[in-house]
Design brief:
heterotrimer; A alpha/beta (374); B mainly alpha (307); C mainly alpha (348); A: 374 residues; alpha/beta; Rossmann fold; 2 domains; seven-stranded mixed sheet; six-stranded parallel sheet; 10 helices; 17 strands; globular; C: 348 residues; mainly alpha; ABC transporter involved in vitamin B12 uptake, BtuC
């Protein structure tokens, strides 16, 4: 299984290089592979302007709109029910879309799978990384290892914290969220092994009042740097800034909200990623079924450092980032204990980012105050 | 910048701070609904007023740069929705509960529609008064950052009580609410009085909404309200239509809302969904145990048809 | 015949209201800078323009037909219940439990157990509200609202906790139902059988309300509680039972959502079908037969919302605004009812 991933990554990178080498999008000869407009559909589970998850995807869609020969149709606030199946069918039948980006995690099973079987000539790109060999070939998954960027955020946070306590406002204790919490903590503990992260789960992907309450609770308990994994980080960031905490952003850069307190952030780079995918598609190249990558593949990135980040912190974080960019960095290596004292990764084992064991993560590492059970 | 951890004391402190923070929208909406219900009508549409007020407050504050103008605009938009509600209910044979739900949909829909451009930008927020200047403990200091609207609300409650009981207007409102026939025989237009009461209630509800977007959580997006407007209507009933009891009830709700995250932060992790449902369970229990079957709700305004 | 006429009459006013609402909505669109006729055309196209659109509308209507009964049935007794969403969620939960934990037998038996489970979940919640209403004097609008929030919290807690499927890591859900108990599609249509369940339940409800003495008793109580008691009607048990049946309908909708669409219970079943059902009930003036076309209409409006978003770049909130306008206009048109009856049907 591991080989497949590395192989597809290499091919993906190869395609990347080719697209890059072909120069500016407008002049690439490959786009003439399609004589008429290609319609691409984007589906969002929430509002496009949420300063977070959906907005990041919408920014990717905006980049795609600029590619000549591409027409983009978007629909927002489509719930993860049969409605999204109908939206996809509507886009295919009424708008003539041949490439779809349903961007919410919960769309894949059963909705995308059903539609992919029904429309074998349409390409479905799902943000979530769930594709497996048993699934139709016209369904594709992509995901970014944003935990790498959270690791860097953690390092920066480690330098910034004076109370040695960090705060994390999280939606639900699912593996993707747990990876972020753990990466953040591991990064901070690289700087100082005594640092702890307190996590509060709100139970919902978007609930401003609970997020504000959670942030206040974290401040009450002494956290002075905060990050989050919710759909719209704006409320968490603003509330934390009012409590004089430092901020590490997520999904997109929330620096404009409080430039002085914003340290750095873990962001998606959908415009770059989507542009590459579209170019490959227009050129008629086969697209990999499983596209995954992190900092190196430029699917995720770190926000620019804010003014409060010390030179020492920058040096350390940049050094680690350089390691990510040049090779495989195993964030999760043994011996690793969870916060109940159990060894979850034994001595000598090192799990690289693409390892599917990490997809099943159900623990919080030592140093995290919180629990995964609801 | 460092806040030393509080441990267990953090929980009652968080509940106290939450009570003040979270209660203000409840306070304004319930006081407004109090007056409306005293005049004999139920306005379930206040949820729409709340959301509309939040959007208007935020948008106008952003455009004008002054949050207080935003607050006024929010109140104004709430008043319009209240008038709409009263107008529709004033027509014969119109079910006022249903109108409320319609206004809720309309208000929320228009607010979301017009509010699209305001999700991103940052509007000037309302200031708070620092009542915690005497303490060095950061958490206590933060808890005692009280917003002016809250203080206005606290002052408004006894003022409303006094107004209802001691002024001519108050008496007319109560009369219309207790017996429309009696009011008519005295020459008062029942519909007009209710129109005024509902408009006023809508105005207050709009202000309550502006608190959400201009102070806490302090930004506008579509998920801002989680049913607070509807909850406030429930609140009025178990506060027995007394504005001062509305104040206490609002504080109770605010505190209950803060309980969930506060408990998580001291390590009580399991069942957080259930803790978040605490305010609703609380209201239901209180309603069940303070009302009993055959006894009609004595304090209810006679015309209200709610008992 | 009398009640068929009443049903037709029940439709005439809403139809007029909808036309007027569309005019208002068109004005709203014009102010927003959008061509209203393009809007009307796209709405028609998205809702009823092609066979695909029709199926889309039917599909969205299916749960609404059932959740509307949760409001429409108690309304016959003069009560306003808004707990359809909570009943749906609980019904989905208990129906799923029946499907997963019932002793293995032939599929049809398990499916029957699921149907009963779904109905039970909803009936318990709303029936409880009925009990509170009669025996404790608690206003049913408020109590069903509160119970909805509580039910959703309990559902989330159980689905993400004790009943969670360990393999459903990133989208917490229960274990998936076995394939042989899932609900399939009506042959020839891309719509699941839930639509038929809904229509059947509505027909049954109609017969119950208008053609049994028992339904008559309910309606009498709706007209005048004191009079009902004076003639010896047992208002208490009647209230609880009517509420419970309404809840059962919404609960069934929840079970169908799981068994026909998602195959496992998770938070995606709580997306507002219960709340939209309230709207459907009022628009249909609580007549179970009228609920069916109204639900299809609202399903159509929802279906066309996607097209509006994509072609005209209108936000999703436009559909909410339209629903609010329709509802408000319809309610004010209630006043016309007494004066423009073409069949001169008297209210019973």
């Amino acid at each position: 299984m591991t080989n497949n991933y590395t192989f597809s990554r290499r091919r993906f990178l190869g395609g990347l290089a080719a697209a890059g080498a072909a120069g500016a999008v407008a002049t690439t000869p490959f786009s003439q592979a399609f004589a008429k407009n290609v319609t691409v559909g984007f589906i969002y589970v929430g509002p496009r302007g949420d300063f977070g998850y959906n907005q990041a995807h919408a920014e990717g869609a905006a980049a795609v709109k600029k590619i000549p020969g591409i027409k983009v149709v978007e629909e927002e606030k489509v719930p993860e029910t049969i409605a999204v199946q109908k939206t996809m069918e509507s886009m295919i039948n009424l708008d003539g879309a041949t490439l779809l980006f349903p961007t919410s995690f919960g769309y894949y099973n059963p909705h995308i799978l059903k539609m992919a079987k029904k429309y074998p000539n349409v390409t479905f790109m799902h943000s979530g990384g769930l594709w497996s060999d048993k699934h139709p070939k016209n369904a594709h998954s992509y995901f970014g290892y944003i935990d790498e960027a959270q690791y860097l955020s953690g390092i920066v946070a480690g330098y910034a914290t004076k109370t040695k306590k960090l705060g994390f406002v999280a939606a639900k204790p699912i593996p993707q969220v747990l990876r972020n919490i753990n990466a953040f903590t591991l990064g901070a503990r690289l700087v100082n092994p005594g640092i702890e992260t307190q996590v509060i789960f709100t139970g919902e992907w978007s609930m401003p009042l609970k997020e504000a309450e959670a942030t206040n609770s974290l401040a009450d308990q002494g956290a002075d740097v905060v990050t989050c994994h919710v759909d719209g980080p704006k409320v968490v960031m603003e509330t934390a800034a009012k409590r004089a905490m430092f901020l590490c952003g997520y999904h997109a850069s929330q620096a404009p909200l409080d430039p002085q307190k914003y340290l750095t952030g873990a962001e998606w780079d959908w415009p770059a990623t989507y542009t590459k995918i579209i170019n490959d598609y227009m050129a008629g190249k086969p697209i990999d079924n499983l596209i995954r990558g992190g900092l190196k593949e430029a699917i995720v990135k770190s926000s620019a450092y804010g003014p409060a980040v010390t030179a020492e912190a920058r040096k350390h974080a940049d050094a680690v980032k350089a390691k990510f960019l040049t090779g495989n960095v195993a964030l999760y290596k043994g011996p690793l204990k969870d916060n109940k004292g159990k060894i979850v990764i034994p001595v000598g084992t090192s799990l690289e980012q693409t390892n599917i064991e990490l997809e099943k993560m159900n623990y919080l590492v030592e140093g995290v105050i919180g629990s995964v059970s609801s | 910048m460092a806040d030393p951890a509080l441990g267990w004391i953090g929980v009652p402190l968080a509940v106290f701070a939450g009570a003040i923070r979270v209660s203000t929208p409840f306070l304004f909406v319930s006081m407004g609904e109090c007056i409306t219900e005293r005049s004999g009508r139920v306005n379930l549409g206040l949820e729409g007023n709340l959301v509309m007020g939040a959007m208007m407050g935020y948008g106008v504050s952003f455009i004008t740069g002054n949050p207080w103008i935003g607050v006024l605009a929010a109140g104004f938009s709430g008043a319009i929705l209240g008038t709409l509600h009263a107008f529709a209910c004033g027509l014969p044979r119109v079910n006022h509960i249903a109108v409320g739900i319609a206004i809720m949909l309309l208000g929320t829909g228009i607010a979301f529609y017009l509010g699209q451009p305001f999700v991103q930008p940052k509007a000037p927020n309302l200031q708070s008064i620092d009542l915690g200047w005497w303490t060095d403990i950061p958490q206590l200091k933060a808890a005692l950052q009280i917003n002016i609207l809250f203080i206005i609300g606290v002052i408004l409650a006894p003022v409303l009580v006094w107004g209802l009981n001691n002024t001519r207007w108050g008496m007319i409102v109560r009369m219309v609410g207790d017996s429309a026939d009696a009011a008519r025989s005295m020459g008062y237009s029942v519909n007009f009085v209710r129109l005024m009461a509902t408009t006023f209630g809508g105005f207050l509800a709009g202000i309550g909404g502006s608190f959400l977007s201009l102070y806490y959580p302090g930004s506008w997006n579509e998920g801002l309200s989680s049913g607070q407007g509807l909850m406030a209507v429930a609140l009025v009933i178990f506060a027995r239509w007394d504005p001062i009891k509305c104040l206490w009830a609002s504080l109770l709700f605010g505190g209950a809302g803060a309980l969930g995250p506060a408990l998580q932060s001291v390590g009580i992790q399991s069942g957080y969904y259930l803790f978040f449902a605490a305010p609703y369970i609380l209201t239901l229990c209180i309603m069940i145990f303070t009302l009993s079957g055959k006894r009609k709700m004595k304090d209810a305004p006679g015309e209200l048809n709610i008992g | 015949m009398h009640h068929i006429k009443s049903a037709v009459d029940a439709l005439r006013i809403p139809l007029l209201a909808i036309i007027v609402s569309m005019v208002f909505f068109g004005i709203f669109m014009m102010i927003a800078g959008v061509d209203p006729f393009e809007v009307y055309y796209l709405m028609y196209r998205g809702a009823f323009g092609t066979w695909f659109s029709w199926q889309n509308s039917f599909l969205r209507a299916a749960p609404l037909i059932l959740t509307a009964l949760c409001t429409a049935l108690p309304a016959q007794m003069g009560m306003v219940v808004i707990g359809g969403e909570g009943a749906l969620v609980l019904g989905g939960l208990i129906g799923t439990m029946a499907g997963l934990y019932a002793p293995p037998t032939i599929p049809i038996v398990t499916q029957i157990a699921m149907v009963l489970g779904g109905m039970l979940g909803g009936a318990l919640l709303i029936g409880f509200a009925g009990y509170l209403r009669y025996y404790r004097g608690v206003n049913e609008t408020i109590s069903t609202l509160l119970l909805t929030y509580i039910a959703i919290a309990v559902f989330n807690h159980i689905v993400e906790g004790p009943m969670r499927d360990p393999a459903s890591l990133n989208k917490p859900s229960t274990l998936p139902l076995p394939d042989n108990v899932l609900i399939g599609s009506i042959p020839g249509m891309d719509v699941h059988w839930g639509l038929v369940f809904g229509i059947v339940f509505c027909a049954f409800a109609y017969l119950l309300v208008f053609h049994t003495t028992w339904g008559f008793a309910a309606r009498v109580t709706g007209g005048n509680v004191k009079a009902a008691k004076m003639v010896g009607l047992k208002v208490g048990p009647l209230t609880v039972i009517v509420f419970a049946i309404g809840g059962a309908a919404a609960g069934l909708a929840g079970m169908i959502e799981v068994a026909a669409v998602h195959t496992q219970a998770n938070a995606s079943i709580a997306v507002g079908y219960g709340f939209t059902g309230i709207l459907v009930a009022f628009l249909a003036r609580h007549n179970p037969l009228a609920i069916i076309p109204v639900a299809i209409l609202l399903g159509g409006i929802g279906a066309s919302g996607g097209l509006l978003q994509r072609r005209l770049e209108l936000p999703d909130a436009s559909v909410l605004v339209l629903q609010g306008i329709i509802f408000l206009v319809l309610l004010t048109f209630e006043t016309l009812h007494g004066r423009t009856n073409i069949f001169h049907v008297r209210k019973a």
